Each structure stands twice: as C-alpha cells, then as structure tokens.
Task: inverse folding
C-alpha cells in the first residue's frame, strides 16, 4: 500500500485508490503531471527525466519500500550513465521504465550487515555486498548489465587500491569474506563463487598470489613499481584529443626583453600569488620588488612573491618550454627545481619534494602521493605531443594543477610552466588579475569535474588578450591602466566589476 499522501502533494508521489479523485482534479488544474506508472510530480515545468534524476532514490522507495540499491549502481555511485539503469534487490517484481531511467529489480536478500539507510526509504548496499553482487555473471539483455566483467572488476579494485591503500583493500576483502561465510549468508547472497573470484583478484593485485594475470595498465604499473591515477590520465588523454583538433591565435609577446619584460614578470608573480591568498597592495609589492622595501610582519609572504618573480623573469626557465624537456623524467626534474625555488622561503613545506600527504581543494581530492610520479609519467607524453603552443600551455598547467605534486606552491608552478610554454614560443603569457580569479577557478573546476574545457579556453583566451593589450615599459602607467580595467578589485565587490580589455576603454571614451 502506498503511504498516505499529504496535502499539498510532495514533489514526487504514487497514486492509489484512496487518492484517485484528488489526483484527477490536480491533473485537470495542471498542478501535477504523470511521469510513470502511478507516478506523479508537482514539478510540471521540469523535464521528466530531470525530475527522475533528482528523485530517483525516493522513487525507488515508493515502488519498492526497503529495497537495497546495489550491484553496479553502488560501485558506479549512481544510475548508469548510458541508460539510467538503477539496480536494486527487492521482492520479486517487474522492472519499471521511467523517463531516462529504468528500475532493474533483482530478487534476493534484504538489508545485510553494512547496508546503510538511504534517502527515500531504501538501503544503500555496502561496498562489499555490491562487489559480490557485481561479480555474479550477468548479461545485458536490455541496456546496462547489472554486473561487472572481470576486467571491470580488476580496474575497480585497482582504483580502490589507489584511493585507499593496501589496508583499505584488505579491510574490504575481510568484509566480503565475512558476508560470504557468516551464518545464513551463503544461503541468502549465494556468493561463495564470487568471493573466491574477488579474493584471488585482490591477492594478485597485492602481489600475494599469481592466480590471475592483471592486464589493466594501472595494475601492471603498480606491480612494476610505478602506479598512477587512471582517472587523471584519462582526463589528460581526453583533453589532448580535444586540443589536438584545434588551433589558437598566436598573440605575440608584448614584453620580450628589458624593462618591459621585468614589469610583466612582476604582474605575473603578483597575481599568481594573489590567487593563492598571498595578497598585497600592488604598490606594496612594487616597492618590495623594485625598491627593496620590506613589509613588516610578513617575511614569508614577501619571500613568496620575490621567489615567484625570480622564476618567471628567468630567461633560462621562461624560454625553455616542454620542447626542451623531451622526456617525462626531464620535465619532472625541472618541476621539482621550480617548486624548490618558489617555496624556498617555507622549508616546512618541503620545497621540491613530492608531497607526503593527500591535498584537497574544496571537494576535489588530488592525486595520492604514491601515484604522483607515475601519473606525471603517463600524462606528460600527451601534453608534449600537442603542436599548438597555447594548447600545450593549457594542458601543462592543468596537468600540474590536477596532480598537485607538492605540499604547496602547485598553482604558482602550474601557471609559471604555462607561461614559460607561451614565452618559449614567442607568445604572450597569461596573467590572471584579481578580479578574474573566480572565473579562472570556476573554469578549472568545470574541466576537473565535468571534463568540459570550453570555459577554461574562454577564460585563458580573454586573460591573454588582456595581458597583451597593456604596455609594460612604464610600470606606473601599466598599473594605472590595469586599475581602469578593474584588475586589482576583488571579484565579489558590491559594484559587480568585471575585467575590461584596455581596447574597450579606448572605444568607450571615443
């Protein structure tokens, strides 16, 4: 029996005999609409597939109260991307087709040890249970298969090992063994054969058994002593595929030598540190760099700007580029040197040394320390192979940002290498002004989370145009022009300022 429906209607609900009249009247008034068998929504202006996507677990609980979401749905973290399939264990029933989704019902045991209550009156299977379920042979008679092929199991276990380490993988193995051998469990899950398969795969991956040969590149790399983060490699491979099909305008370097080059390097260092939260008034920073003045109480912050400035004005570094670093080993050695130079004022951050702990930014977790070198080795050839200098610069910056090889200084190094790539090709470097910071961070986030490079291409292209339109021979004039363009303003200021191009100032004033 469906639960009693309150008034007003919830966003999604099932009708029954007791609510038929209310539902019919609401339908006639356009207050609700039908989106599935006995399933209605009050979100009448939303696409039906979007409604199901937002409320899929609640909908599953409406049709199958106390069902256990499991199989590949748990291992993949949600409905199948290809066809929206959702796999669950419930009392024998038919599958249910919904807009953009399908509830795939498997008869079997109810909640077991480790399964957790999940929003919508359903349970979320433990990872151990989901793996045992997914290891059960299955065929995709219609759409996505509920289980994993053996190569998918191997790849999933390798990824779990990368993220959690050997102790976590061993704990997972223990949980699967307990589920399989606990009293009554073999009769309900019937998982003895699946347990034997997974136990052998994990043993082979950890190097304790040789029953199964691992063909996944990540597994071979781990066993060879150079493990890597497959997700980040896939990101760079996809980015390479996108960028290799495009060409970009080659904007000439407006300050290739002399005083102008020093002044542009100053803005590069100043804004790059500002992105990382090392903020000074521009006149304070100018006096530090060009007049040797000190800012009381902030020696480490001042050193950050000095060190970054020295790196991005060094002709040897800025005119090399990845064309000179033909191997991943050569690139990694230069990356370590650059980080050591930028962070030498903060010895506690282990300048030039690969990080020892995982670093995070918001909801993004960067590459595990043990996977850093392997990931750089796998990614760098894709970056190096790009023919267009702007494409190489973007890919190089993104790779360093995503891997985050060091405890600190990763963003500054990423932007320094990006600009070195451009300068080495005779192109204008890219400065990210304060007012443009959130545009830049948001565009990076879109590429990280959605695999969408278009926002970053747009942001970096606009920032490069801005950089190229400033004349750098006189520092005070350059600062004044950047001020007119709102470059030094906070991006959350009350007047909603936006970064303007110097050329737009000329047009508006004429």
Result:
């Amino acid at each position: 029996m469906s639960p009693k429906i309150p008034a007003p209607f919830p966003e999604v609900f099932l009708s029954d005999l007791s609510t038929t009249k209310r539902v019919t009247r609401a339908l006639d008034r356009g207050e609700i609409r039908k989106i599935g068998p006995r399933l209605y929504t009050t979100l009448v202006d939303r696409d039906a597939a979007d409604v199901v996507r937002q409320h899929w677990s609640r909908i599953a609980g409406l049709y199958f109260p106390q069902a256990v979401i499991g199989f590949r749905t748990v291992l993949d973290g949600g409905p199948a991307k290809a066809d929206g399939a959702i796999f669950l264990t419930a009392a024998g029933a038919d599958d249910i087709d919904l807009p953009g989704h399908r509830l795939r019902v498997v008869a079997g045991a109810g909640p077991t040890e480790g399964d957790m209550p999940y929003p919508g009156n359903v349970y979320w299977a433990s990872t151990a249970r989901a793996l045992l379920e997914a290891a059960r042979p299955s065929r995709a008679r219609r759409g996505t298969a509920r289980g994993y092929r053996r190569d998918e199991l191997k790849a999933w276990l390798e990824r779990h090992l990368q993220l959690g380490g050997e102790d976590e993988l061993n704990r997972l193995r223990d949980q699967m063994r307990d589920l399989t051998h606990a009293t009554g469990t073999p009769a309900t899950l019937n998982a003895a054969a699946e347990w034997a398969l997974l136990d052998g795969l994990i043993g082979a991956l950890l190097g304790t058994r040789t029953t199964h040969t691992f063909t996944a590149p990540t597994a071979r790399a781990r066993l060879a002593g150079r493990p890597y983060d497959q997700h980040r490699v896939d990101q760079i491979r996809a980015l390479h595929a996108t960028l290799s099909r495009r060409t970009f305008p080659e904007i000439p370097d407006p300050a290739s030598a002399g005083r102008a080059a020093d002044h542009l390097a100053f803005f590069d260092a100043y804004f790059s540190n500002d992105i990382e939260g090392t903020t000074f008034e521009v006149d304070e920073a100018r006096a530090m760099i060009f007049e040797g003045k000190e800012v009381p109480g902030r020696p480490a912050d001042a050193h950050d700007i000095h060190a970054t400035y020295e790196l991005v004005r060094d002709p040897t570094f800025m005119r090399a580029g990845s064309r000179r670093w033909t191997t991943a080993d050569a690139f990694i050695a230069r990356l370590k040197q650059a980080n050591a130079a930028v962070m030498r004022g903060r010895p506690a951050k282990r300048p030039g040394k690969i990080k020892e702990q995982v670093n995070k930014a918001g909801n993004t977790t960067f590459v595990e320390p043990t996977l850093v070198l392997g990931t750089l080795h796998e990614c760098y050839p894709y970056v190096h192979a790009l023919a267009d200098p702007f494409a190489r610069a973007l890919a190089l910056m993104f790779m360093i940002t995503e891997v985050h090889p060091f405890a600190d200084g990763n963003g500054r190094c990423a932007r320094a290498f990006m600009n070195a790539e451009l300068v080495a090709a005779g192109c204008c470097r890219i400065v990210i002004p304060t007012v443009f910071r959130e545009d830049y961070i948001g565009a990076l986030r879109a590429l990280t989370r959605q695999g969408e490079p278009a926002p970053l291409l747009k942001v970096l292209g606009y920032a490069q145009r801005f950089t190229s339109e400033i004349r750098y021979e006189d520092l005070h004039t350059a600062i004044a022009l950047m001020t007119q363009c709102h470059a030094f303003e906070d991006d959350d200021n009350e007047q909603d300022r936006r970064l303007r191009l110097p050329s737009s100032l000329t047009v508006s004033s004429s």
Remarks:
- Residues 12-126 form one domain.
- The CA atoms of residues 303 and 345 lie 6 Å apart.
